[in-house]
Amino acid sequence: MFIFKFILLLFIALFLFILIFAFRILNYFRNGMNQFNKQNGNNEGRGRHGRNSSYGDDEKVIDTRNPEDANKKIFTKDEGEYVDYTEEDK
Q1: pLDDT tens digits for range 23-53
Q2: CA distance 17 to 5
Q3: Cα separations (Å) of 84 from 16, 81, 87?
Q4: DSSP annotation string for the chain
Q5: Beta carbons within 8 Å of 47's beta carbon, 6+ residues apart
Q6: What is the largest CA-CA distance in the chain?
Q7: Can you name the residues that pair with 63 across neighbouring β-strands?
Q8: Which residues contact 55 (CB under 8 A, 6 or more apart)?
């Protein structure tokens, strides 16, 4: 009977050790995620498509246009610089 109680006590101690180890690992990853979120905290609160840029003395420029409008070219295809070139023979 003593051996059975000893094995049961050993099993409970091993289970508690594994449980504490698992909680420490989870806490480690949770702290890492919190630090990651703090570093990227300036991305929050700008809306879905907002872009935040700073220039000079902490002046902020916030672009709230959707990506399709923000990435459009501002020149038409027929506008641009004309370069007169000649082909060279090799």
Answers
A1: 999 999 999 888 888 887 755 544 444 555 5
A2: 18
A3: 80, 10, 10
A4: -HHHHHHHHHHHHHHHHHHHHHHHHHHHHHHHHHHHHHHTGGGTTS-SS-EEEEETTTEEEEE-S-HHHHTS-SS-TT-S----------
A5: 64
A6: 101
A7: 51
A8: 61
